Amino acid sequence: MKPDEIKKLDAYFKRMFNPQMVVKARPRKNDSAEVYLGEEFLGVVYIDDEDGDRSYNFSMAILDVDL
Question: Which InterPro entries match (predicted)?
């Protein structure tokens, strides 16, 4: 994922959910970025380029012990 895309996603997550959310590049991966709330890992944002329409999918696993 390009640095300008990460900046835009970072601003979006901060504005929509929480100012403490941070989007970071993933090591050795260029099709996704990691999302954190402070130091806590929340999930991954993936690029979806299907049919020429670019979109982003946020995937967050919720463990049973966290409920």
Answer: DUF3126
DSSP H helical segments within 1-67, as ranges? 3-16
Terminal-to-terminal C-alpha distance of the chain? 32
Domain enclosing residue 19, as ranges: 1-64
pTM of the model: 0.89
How many domains in the chain? 1
Q: Sign of the C-alpha dihedral, residues 31, 60, 56, 45?
A: negative
Q: In angstroms, rounded to a whole number, what is the distance separating the alpha carbons of residues 48 and 22? A: 20
Q: Is 16 helix (H, G, I), strand (E, B) or coil?
A: helix
